[in-house]
Amino acid sequence: MIHNLSQQNSIFNNFLAEIRDEVIQRDSLRFRRNMERVAEIMGYELSKKLKYSEKEITTTLGVVNVKTSDSELVLATILRAGLPMHQGLLNYFDKADSAFVSAYRKHTSSDEFDVFVEYCAAPTIDGKVLIISDPMLATGTSMTMVYKALLKNGNPKQVHIVAAIATNEALAMIEKYFPENTQVWVGAIDEELTAQSYIVPGLGDAGDLAFGDKL
After folding, report:
1. How many Cα atoms sit within 13 Å of 161 on the Cβ side?
2. Which of 103, 183, 185, 201 could crosslink 142 through cysteines, CB 3.0-4.6 Å?
3. Which contiguous run of DSSP H or E holds residue 67?
4. Residues paired with 43 in a beta bridge
């Protein structure tokens, strides 16, 4: 199931517009915070799909029954670009465990590249709700390889993918390689993917915009 948040009018679209705006992008602090806010809103929407149970809460004046989520969550992200979105999700799911995976492109030519996963620090995900965040879903290759790396730590109960911008090509790959009940949360779906697998109009390199240019 794909949830495209930009299809509804909300303040979310303001934050999405700002992370795309080449002028506003020059402020890396603002870019990181906007990425956090995008993830926070996605986390709120995603939370409606979690498991809830009623609990009795005692206040200073009485007792009230409240439905709260008791889902066990693991928040995973792809280094380094995914860190601001990870923080946004962690702001809302503050009791969740965290996982970090490195995935990067190594170009064999101007138009071809391989994706390498070299680092994975993760708790058990067995029987838990796994939420994987990455700003850009271009081809879906990195997301798929990261998911396969995380499966070494167990089989999740359910998978949610959170991304600011995706392409139809990436969504097709997720449909092919992820469990049938996977839910994808995106800010927008852009139509064009270049020969170098960059999303157009996209927003550029999210890692560089958040943390500075890399060599």
Report:
1. 31
2. 103
3. strand 63-69
4. none
Contact in structure between 135 and 163 (CB atoms under 8 Å) = yes
Going residue by residue through the chain (215 aa), what tens digit of pLDDT does each one get?
999 999 999 999 999 999 999 999 999 999 999 999 999 999 999 999 999 999 999 999 999 999 999 999 999 999 989 999 999 999 999 999 999 999 876 656 655 656 788 889 999 999 999 999 999 999 999 899 999 999 999 999 999 999 999 999 999 999 999 999 999 999 999 988 887 778 999 999 999 999 998 87
Closest among 73, 118, 138 to 99, alpha carbons compared = 73
**Nearest Cα residue to 87 out of 211, 174, 202:** 211
How does strand 129-133 pair with strand 158-167?
Answer: parallel
Distance between CA atoms of 85 and 146, rounded to whole angstroms? 16
Domain chopping of the chain, boundaries: 2-50+69-211
Domain 2-50+69-211, CATH number (from 3.50.30.10, 3.30.360.10, 3.40.50.2020, 3.40.50.150) = 3.40.50.2020
Determine the Cα–Cα distance for residues 91 and 39; give it in Å rounded to an integer. Answer: 9
> Rounded to whole angstroms, how far apart are CA atoms 164 and 138?
11
Q: What is the DSSP letter of 25?
A: G
